Amino acid sequence: MTTPLLSIKGVSAFYGSIAALKGIDVEVMPGEIVTIIGANGAGKSTLMMTICGNPQAREGQVIFEGRDITHMPTHEIMRLKIAQSPEGRRIFPRMTVYENLQMGAAVAQDGDFKSDLARVYSLFPLLERRKGQRGGTLSGGEQQMLAIGRALMSRPRLLLLDEPSLGLAPLIVRQIFSAIRELNRKEKLTIFLVEQNAFHALKLAHRGYVMVNGRISMQGSGRELLERPEVRSAYLEGGR
Amino acid sequence: MEYFLQQLINGLALGSIYGLVAIGYTMVYGIIGMINFAHGDIFMVGAFIALIAFLILIAIGITAVPLALFLVLLIAMLLTSLYGWAVERIAYRPLRGSFRLAPLISAIGMSIVLQNYVQLAQGARVKTLPPLITGVHTLLDLGNRFVVQISNIQILIIVTTFALMTGFSWLVSSTSLGRDMRACEQDLKMAALLGVDTNRTISLTFLIGAALASVAGIMYLLYYGVIDFHIGFVAGVKAFTAAVLGGIGSLPGAMLGGLLIGLIETYWSAYFSVQYKDVAAFSILIIVLIFMPTGILGRPEVEKV
Questions:
Q1: Cβ contacts of residue B276 below 8 Å, gap of 6+?
Q2: Largest CB tally within 10 Å, which of A238, B152, B242, B277?
Q3: A130 and A217 share a domain?
Q4: What's the structural domain count of chain A?
Q5: Is residue A86 included in any domain, yes or no?
């Protein structure tokens, strides 16, 4: 049995005195796409941020490549080659597309900037055409591509994607999900995906977890979860 | 006409000093959203360090003005930037993440601490430096009662300021440190998510701001030859006004605002009344803020998301 790339053991996190995560256990194996689905406010994004140490877990452990990163500062965690495309994309609005990508490469000291850039441009050719444009002037879909591209510039070993489909047109969503699948298939990139769009996410992922009110309520392979009646009724029917 | 041109030169020299200090206000505001009220006093500390350095250099026999000036510049920038760094470390960083007013109050406290510290250590009386850089050039002499002159010290101030601002703009726009600074300014949390050590970047911002303020302090010392522990207050308020006038958070705005405040003050003194020069500068500020709340080069808060 292979060791997990990322394992989250009994993690609880708080915003002030409010518990956002209550004893979460999640594992991500190398080469997998793992997804967490759940309603708004279930704590999915908090889990993503807790992996990155902001907020830090109050209980439990976050272990990446066998190393306890629970109490490391955010920037040091990211230097271990975890990259995140966060909720709301958080593109630097007054930097150009190119500068945004340069920021993504800030921790890739060993990397070859040109080839990393070429890789992102070939995945999202649109970004190359927009490279001189300011981030704040891009459309939502373009910003999402840029957020993923920026995350890829650090050559991550684990890519965290928070709601990449949020607020995007179905065509763009399909484009982005196919890019995610391609990254995983061709480059064996491990991806941890948080989504409200349960149907797309479960179809794409190898395994999935369902999160309700800060706890994991169900887990299983993507297909299994898709077929479960309680998942279907809560997240899929009419949702899509 | 000659009188007007003469005041233009005087105003530019004064405005350069304000501009250098204003950059410190605007950078810190941009990156952590607070007004560093102790920045004016950092400028004052810079002037004192320069004065002490000059006196020491003269005492040990280094009297060649260019060499002394260079050494003083180096010493003052180095030591003053340590002060700037320490202020952030002691008074602002522990308060990061607390309510917005907390670092502001802490900044006012820091300002008082620095003033009193210098007052105790150096005495409350004014300190003077004999003029080191002398000589004037006549630019225009039409045989009227007035000639247009520029002094060497004015040339030095304007040229140094211009060089520093050019270098600093380049740093912000084209180096990776500058990019990190802009990233922190636009989205601190995201910058950390990309592996930027945000605490280090903020420290460096304070360091650079203090270094620029110390140069302004040296220029002030050389220009007026008289300093005391209180000069940081008025100069700080003026420079802060300059930063707001130009659009706080904007670097070109700080430079422009500094020059404008310098010119307004000089022209008002020249044509109306010296006593009311501060009233003029601040009135212009109020008028600009009423009609352009974000300042001249400031951007509106609305961003497309």
A1: B268
A2: B242
A3: no
A4: 2
A5: no
DSSP state of A217: E
Q: What is the ipTM of this complex?
A: 0.91
User: Cβ of B177 under 8 Å from any chain A Cβ?
Assistant: no
Q: How many residues does this entry show for chain B?
A: 305
Best mutation target among A54, A56, A75 (most B Cβ atoms within 10 Å) is A75
CB pairs under 8 A between A and B: 67
Listed residues A140, A155, A170: the one ending a domain:
A155
Amino acid at the residue B271: Y
What is the distance between the alpha carbons of residues A98 and B183, in angstroms, rounded to a whole number? 13
The C-alpha torsion from B4 through B9 and B13 to B19, rounded to 10°, is 70
Q: What is the pLDDT of residues A177-186, one digit of tens each?
A: 999 999 999 9
State the Cα–Cα distance between residues B133 and B70, nearest whole angstrom.
13
How many angstroms separate the most distant Cα atoms in chain A?
48
Please write the tens of the pLDDT for every residue from B17-27.
999 999 999 99
Assess whether A223 and A237 both reside in one domain. Answer: yes
Same structural domain for residues A3 and A69?
yes
B246 membership: H or E segment, kind and range = helix B231-246
Report how far residue B211's alpha carbon sits from residue B213's, in angstroms, rounded to the nearest whole number. 5
